[in-house]
Amino acid sequence: MLTSKQSAVPSATTSLRTPKLSDVILARLEAMIVEGSLQPGQKLLPERELARQFEVSRPSLREAIQKLEAKGLVTRKQGGGTFVAENLLSGLADPLFNLLSQHSEAQFDLLEFRYGIEGMSAYYAAMRGTEADFAEIKLKHENIGHAQIENDYAAEAKAVFEFYLAVCAASHNAVMLHLARSMSPLLIENIEQNLTILAQRPVIFAKIADYRTRLLEAILSGQPEKAWAASHRHLAYIEEVLLDLSQEQSRMERSMRRMQRREY
Question: CA neighbours within 13 Å on the CB side: how many for 150?
Fold first, then answer.
């Protein structure tokens, strides 16, 4: 029998509290946003369907969504439903990004950044990717070919980015996924600018496509080291050609200046 002094000390059992059901649902929804299952701008299922999916009551679900809204993670539209907030990644979308996109040297800095994030994503995608992940990656790879048929570099750049975003998602690393997604305007523009410059040598596009196919095969076959190496070889080739074209352009400009001086 406990004495009055003993009963005054809370036990480990009595100090634990069962979490509210709405908090459990909140944590589940937050995890879906972090892992990318729910993306910025995506509409949530109607309350009735979500409640059935989570096997909870609608009042508990509604309370969880209200907490998400208070945190700024979702927004509600009268009569239109609930949406994951569009501005989740606005902290990285600042004027500096616009400045970087117009700076010539930044194009090579971005390539170096892509070495890191695309190489790591490919490595972990090959290691951790699921069959569903691989199906999505294959679909995005096919979309690049469809965009190339249209001869539209803007569409092709977006398709290439979506392919690498699918690889990031397959890595199951939330930080890499959201970092890549947050930089999407800058990275897509970088890819489009590169494609425009590389178009000076159309024959290289077949080789770039071959490198990307090798990357795809390494990921799908579950070979992390090979996927990492394939990613690096692909980007190294692009960088090599861009540098060569840059030097060629510089030589042409110097030649033009010399010709102009002679005319005077």
Answer: 11
State the DSSP code for 67.
Answer: H
Contacts of 172 (CB under 8 A, 6+ apart): 35, 124, 128, 129
Rounded distance between C-alpha atoms, residue 66 and residue 68, angstroms: 5
pLDDT in tens, 115-154: 999 999 999 999 999 999 999 999 999 999 999 888 899 9
Q: Are 245 and 200 in contact (CB under 8 A)?
A: yes
Average pLDDT over residues 51-73: 90
Find the helix packing angle between 58-70 and 47-54, rounded to 10°: 110
Rounded CA-CA distance 135/216 in Å is 11
Task: Output b/e per residue, 214-247; b: 16+ Cβ within 10 A.
Answer: bbbebbbeebbebbbbbbbebbeebbebbeeeee
For strand 81-84 and strand 74-77, is the pairing parallel, antiparallel, or unpaired?
Answer: antiparallel
* 101 — pLDDT class (breaks 50, 70, 90): low
pLDDT at 63 over 50: yes
Are the C-beta atoms of 36 and 169 separated by less than 8 Å?
yes
What pLDDT was estimated at residue 52? 92
Between 259 and 17, residue with greater pLDDT = 17
H helices of the chain, where? 4-7, 12-15, 21-35, 47-54, 58-70, 95-101, 104-128, 131-149, 153-170, 174-182, 184-198, 204-220, 224-263
Rg (CA), the chain: 25
What is the model's pTM?
Answer: 0.69
pLDDT, position 213? 96
